[in-house]
Amino acid sequence: MEKLRQEILEALSENCRRSDTELAKLLKKPRHMVAYHHGQLLKSNLITGHKLVLNYNALGYTEYLVYLKIFQYLKIKKELVSFVEKQPNVVWAGETFPKYTLRLVIITKTPVEFENILNEFEFVCAGNVLEKQVFVRLGTIKKESYSRRLSTIKNQTNVLLSKKDKVLLFALSGDASASLLSLAKQSGFSIEGVRQKIKAWELAGLISLFTISVDAKKVNTQFWCNLLIRVNNSKKYLLKLRQLLYSDVGYGRTFNTLGAFDFEMTLFATSYDHLVELVRKLEVFFGDDFGDFELQINTRKLSAGKLPKVLLD
Is residue 93 within 8 Å of 302, Cβ to Cβ? Predict the structure, then answer.
């Protein structure tokens, strides 16, 4: 891929609402050149969508990460997919390989609510859950999936949403790059009202990111994985780990977690050798404190890209 197109992709991964003028200023390139290459990335469908990423903690929710190993998954897949699509608290669901079958992200306001949802899910599985791992996401270390430019993680404050606010959030979720005019028409806010709401939600840490989805094959991603890492004294590495993660676009969104493992990070590897290199760099970085890791390959999305319906309550 041409260097400029790579730079545009990274800049849009950080903020897909950047205009061509803003991109040109950031990349120090002529606007007409940036506009042309940006247009080509869209025309070729290399950029497949524009996404809103929220920090649900700012709304009083806890994010739970669940890995499940399911026996005879294909026999009950239809029922499981139907359950996931109807469950309003599910943020993400996807198939994985080899150890676990499914990866879920679920948000709830109480542990009891989460346990009830998990029990319902296991009931649908008809006793076929062989193993499960549950984690609580504690914080974000790297929020972008395709960037090498170190960004700031904003402090979070609690946010209350009105009915009108929720309409605006769901409009942004439908197209995170939508114009202020379009968002105003959908939400009933004025253009300036939309601008101020977005700014306030970003400052409060509710909006974590406006980003893009890309066609993995067209950016030569051969392995899309999630890496679970166990580390001794993990807190002492948080600051320096961010610098390592921004050294290679192969390191994607990363969280520190509470559970059997201390970190979960997304990896985008262009080859088997690149995948090994990404993991080896982490082993060297953590040194003697590197405990253990598990690598899961993401094979298929089942539910992703939309805000969970529970936010409408």
Answer: yes
How much is the average pLDDT of 290-306? Answer: 90
Give the per-residue pLDDT at 305: 64
Measured torsion, CA atoms of residues 264, 269, 272, 277, in degrees rounded to the nearest 10: -70
259-262-268 Cα angle (round to 5):
120
In Å, what is the CA distance from 161 to each residue of 24, 113, 253, 312? 35, 21, 26, 10
Residues 35 and 105 in one domain: no
HEC letters along 23-59: HHHHHCCCHHHHHHHHHHHHHCCCEEEEEEEECHHHH
Neighbours of 63 (CB within 10 A): 19
At 34, which CATH number?
1.10.10.10
Q: Say if pTM beats, i.e. exceeds, 0.85.
A: yes
Does residue 94 lie within any of the structural domains? yes
Residue range(s) defining the domain that contains residue 90: 56-137
